Amino acid sequence: MRAPLPSGAYAPSSVRQVSSAGNPVVEFEGEDGRRRTFDFAQCPLPGWHPVLAEVLVQRVGPAGGLRTSTSSLAAWNNLRAFLRFLEALSDCPGDPSALTVAHVNAYTAAEIGRVGPVYGARRADHVWRLLRLEPAAGVIDAAAIGALRLRGVGTPGGGTAGYSDRELALIVDTARRDVMQLRDRLQATETLLGRMSLEPARLTIWSGPTPCGWPKSPPRELLRQKGGRASMPTVHGRSLPSRCS
Length: 245
Hints:
There is one protein chain. The protein is mostly helical. The chain has 7 helices and 7 strands, in the order βββαααααααββββ. It has helices at 49-59, 69-88, 101-115, 117-131, 136-139, 142-146, 165-198, and strands at residues 15-18, 24-29, 35-39, 225-226, 229-230, 234-235, 238-239. The strands form 3 sheets. It has a 3-stranded antiparallel β-sheet with strand order 1-2-3, covered by helices on one side. Strand 6 (234-235) and strand 7 (238-239) form a beta hairpin. The radius of gyration is 31 Å and the shape is elongated. It starts with 14 loop residues before the first strand and ends in a 6-residue tail after the last strand.
């Protein structure tokens, strides 16, 4: 029987709101306890704001992968940079449905020229992870979204995907509980085996299925008298350990 999972599931309070000026606002509280307010009044192209607010809420939610203040801020900053780039284009897409592959290719080329292919790809990836979510994916050309994925340019070093501090603590706590249950079961089994070796007459014959590796005989016949005292039974030719006092 498995130990129950620890309580304390991550439930961030990311909420999409509307400011007094009518702009979408996303309030975020990360599992690191820090809060962020992402106000789309800071972004150009208001025709994009409602859709991007919806996908940002998903990205910083419990299934979105951005659970700390730093990671959510990185996504926000790259999203704003993307909108600023689009605004500066001569054929600026005023809303998500107007985005084309040519717009995206111009953006990725500018990022690569500014910070190099590896970090340019990472910045474009931040945008891709937002635009691939609904409702953005439903109104933007799929080819334009796919153009944000720059394959074959490598990835920056210095980081490896893993668990957050909270997730690791829960995993370790669960493992410890499972180990404690296993220890208790082993101790109880050793106690019963000790009693069996000392008082074989109290045993009853088991008529159920024979455990793997045990001969088909009553338990008392498994005991071998040695020096006037019963020795522990064996499984697959190996003696079971005895730590019973």
